[in-house]
Amino acid sequence: MYGSSQYPVEEREGQDAATNSVRATLALAFEEPCLHRVQAETLQANAASRRVLS
How many CA atoms within 13 Å lie on the side-chain side of 7? Predict the structure, then answer.
C-alpha cells in the first residue's frame, strides 16, 4: 500500500484537490510495473468523496 488520507482539508473544498490527487495517484500507480490494481473506498455518507471515486 502506498498510502492513504483520512483527514479533511476544509479550506480546499471545492477546489478539485481530491480529484487532482486521485488523478495523480492513478497516473503514478500505472507507471509502476508491479501494480495491477488500485483500490479506494470512502464512507457511504461522504457524497463528495464518492463523486471523486465514481
Answer: 3
The residue extents of the domains of the chain are 14-53
- Summarised one tens digit per residue, pLDDT across range 25-49 is 888 888 866 677 888 888 889 888 8
Side chain identity at 47, as an amino acid letter? Answer: A
Rounded Cα distance between 35 and 54, Å, is 21
Helix/strand/coil (H, E, C) string of 4-52? CCCCCCHHHCCCCHHHHHHHHHHHHHCCCCCCCCCCCCCCCCCHHHHHH
